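Reopening this one. Same input as before:
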Amino acid sequence: MQNRLNMKTYTFETQTILTKSLQEVFPFFANAENLDRVTPPWLKFEILTPLPIEMKVGTKVDYRLRLHGIPIRWRSEITEWDPPHKFTDVQLKGPYRYTDSIAFFPDGRTLATGCFGQCTALWDTENHVLKSVVPAGNVVRGVAISPDGECLAFKQWTVPISVVLWDAASRSVRRTITRYTGRPAFSPDGTLLFCDGALVNPSTGEAKVPFREGAPEATDVAFSIDGRLLATAHGGGTARIWSVATGTCLAVLW
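Same output, byte for byte:
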């Protein structure tokens, strides 16, 4: 454990600007066979899934490469497919593990982490050891703890994508929500759970306050302390402020 805590993390960022339309570019990147064309030849990239591959939600692709002579295998799954605008693939099996979100239980003794690794991990903050693992599908994006500490909510990338409500006492799933599937967040009093598109009743999974205006999927969420306002962050550098009572967007920032 001590070695893991001291392990360094490196981030590599790059971008390529293509002066082409989405209609022209999307078919190239959506074709799995072109992965070989954009991978350096010295990695000896190879697609293992029989070709041709029909790209759609739920499609799984197996491939391998060699890094310094060491064979590495991946399996990825298409979780979003919206041509010609976007698609999302997530690693099901492979060498990467990435923690996407964290949340403390109210007593401060347990920390929940959601990661690219098919689980939500619960850690003992006093002894710095793993207490237990909550199984999840593929990738966990967003974890939230109810104010009373009795419920853990997280978004899991499965087919279909869903938000899972997990009971901390019984250590079992209370409810799975598939209609509203955004990054979850509990209101300060615990009576509402934010998911993209609505504020839902955590007990029933039904929408209590539908949002009246659409918005891109939120990358982060926060309630005001009094619970009257909700703020959501989005790609492209924007944020929105919402009325919790009416579900209307009060402002778009930036």
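So the earlier flakiness isn't reproducible anymore. For the record, The radius of gyration is 20 Å.
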